Amino acid sequence: MRIVLGVGGGIAAYKVASLLRLFTEAGHHVTVIPTEASTRFVGTATWEALSGNPVSNSVFDDVHQVNHVRLGHEADLVVVAPATADLLAKAATGQAGDLLTNTLLMAHGPVLFAPAMHTEMWQHAATRANVETLRGRGAAVLEPATGRLTGADSGPGRLPEPQVIFDAAMALVQGQTDFQLPLAGRTVTISAGGTREPLDPVRFLGNRSSGKQGVALAVAARNAGATVRLLAAHMEVPPPAGVEVVSVETALQLREAALAAASDSDVVIMSAAVADFRPAVVSDTKIKKRDDSADPVITLVRNPDILHELVEVRNAAGDEARQRLIVGFAAETGDSHGDVLAYAEAKLQRKGCDLLVVNHVGSDKVFGQDTNSVVILARSGSEPQEASGTKAEVSEAIINRIGFELNSVSPRA
Asked: Which residues participate in CTP binding (predicted)?
């Protein structure tokens, strides 16, 4: 397939080198047309080396080949990434001031724009009108991802990941148009890590959770276009850029944060390892060894069932709240009374959540590891879905399933 890859003048231009690599490794012939501004971020030598083809942004180069007409005519697909606010405006108004905008006017095949700009630019009425104009003419315009932008700001306007753009481009060529980011415009709250229940000022009851799976879910949700809120208990990995972080320590703190966050969330994913019990009494001073060698007795009390409470609050609310998808995680071990899935099925019915992600845990399984293997159970009774691989790959499978559920399931009760 002959692809024209237009590169706009934004800081995200460096990520397009990975997109070009995806196209060429898939066997496609790619001609890169950078705007003049984009060459201040990535030079033409990079594009020529990666594409194996000469690169120009001028209508006056190789005039005898009439490139400003030929490239658009011959292209099976035109992809513009990053599509800056300036490029979207020029394309919408039919300007033809350089080789890329001429090619866009001459394109006979499908055209895909992958926007990237600051949030205020993306949300400006002029940009929104330009996007609607382009879509109305048959061009595909992806929703930008939500995440860290240039400087300290975060929000919608981040260039979608190269793999997302590649998948959308391939779907477009095949006639599919429903490839928008699955969680675009959604707010997703994710809990991650392990809670810690204090015994005294220096000791606590904890668990082996590293937070890796929760962080991977936050990255996958962010890349799927969602605004992500991470309720972070103890984690051995840093939170990802481009998400809101709410720090918690105990199960009670997580309960308070989760109930508050759920009120404006489309999806709540409870992937944190929450302590089932906490000490009935927390000592104000360090518990010391007694001279009589007597063993201390620590009385435990149950922590609230946060997942079940989230479901109850949702079901008791109005129709808008009932659209909220609630996803639980179950770290299970089998025993003589039943296997992992039997316990998980019972937990799904008991908790009442919409999806339950189940993994078989042990001293050398799941906790702290970089890989995972899960089964996704649905309250609707659909067939269990398996996913395995790196925690990033498992997270993408979970997020894709969530996107499917959001777009296909009626209000929950």
From this structure: 276, 286, 304-307, 329, 347, 351
